[in-house]
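Hey Z.,

So I finally got round to the zinc ion thing we talked about over coffee. Here's the setup:
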Amino acid sequence: MRLPRLLRYPLLRLLFRERFKLLNELLQNQQLSRKTLHQQQHQKLVALLKYAVQRVPFYHQQLGTMDWSNFPDSLPILHKSDFIHQQDQLLDRQANRSTLKKGYTGGSTGTPLSYYYNKHKIELMRAAHYRSFMQCGWRPGDPILQFWGASQDLSSRPTLAEHIKNTISGELTVDANHFDEQTLQQWCKTLNQHQPILIRGYPSILAALAHHMVENKIQPSQKIKGCFSTAEVLYPQQRSIIEQAFHCKVYNQYGSREIPNISCECPHGKQHIYSDLVWLESLKIDHAEQLVATSLTNYLQPLIRYTLGDSGSLEEGNCSCGSPFPMMKMEVCRSNDLIHIADGSQLHPSKLIHLLDEIEGIEQFQFTQHQLEVITLQVVTLSTLPPSTEALLKTRFAEQITPAIQLNIESVQLIDRGASGKYRFVRSNLS
Ligand SMILES: [Zn+2]
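And the result:
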């Protein structure tokens, strides 16, 4: 049953008061001049640093005697390995742990990690998503259809409260971890039943659906205003087929679970950095231009000059869309393969990375499908992986992925980056 938006919108505002308050602030920020935004960004950075030195043990130790004369260039870089090893030291010492949740990310760059979050972080993340979505003409409460690959975000049995929230928000999320021809047909039916104004998902999944629609001459039965691509690199051929199938523009969103909403593409095709939420730099690290971000809003577990593991550069100039936010260019540095199963179906790579959720001590990993029936998981670990963990991974693989593929686990010193030098966490020699 679908309630009309006129009825749902006031309920939505009532249910998510904090989100709408934050959205209001974010919308006001995009009315500011670039100069004012830049000044505010600097003030936010100084305030965050002062807080972190006072309240966060890691930064108290690292920056307690900081020389401000060369600020902010003198700030040290926070590598993913620091984040993994100093997890608790990076937490606000006065945080009420009983109200915190722990999230896990396989990390699209192949380094699994966990992080703390609270309700405020989620509401701010959603408010910033709303701001991005509104660029295409979507309004809060308009139906959204999401094709999602991250198992931890999908409830196998939504609670009544979740069901009510989804009904009011008009959001429907489809589990897109594993799909075949039949699933694609089902998704087309869902598309016509749910009648979304906006579609969001991993580009590899949206492109597979788009191919199916184009090949079978299936048209969306309603006007879709925008397709938002997230969590993976968006390739030009994916963009092209998605735009062809859904008759709307594709917007590329960039962020991570640790630091969401870093940038989003505008209607004029430029990638704008949300400088009211992050301070983004492109720095030369290990002979490559790497994106380094500071979340200006995360006081719970401050991440200052955090290496995202992605490549990209900042772009000078102004955009004809009129947005005051500065611009960036993404480099294609992540490329993961779909996994093939003997029954002809394909599996999204994100399904594999979540096998490692809650398993501590793995610094890096890579899954490689050598044959249809064999996948090897290579791990770089802090100490030898206990046999019980190996057994747990194999059981999870058989239960959550497929019993049709055998999982082998190998401990290695280093993960091979392959000829391109670009790290991929899921490779298939069959792709
Ligand atoms: Zn623009």
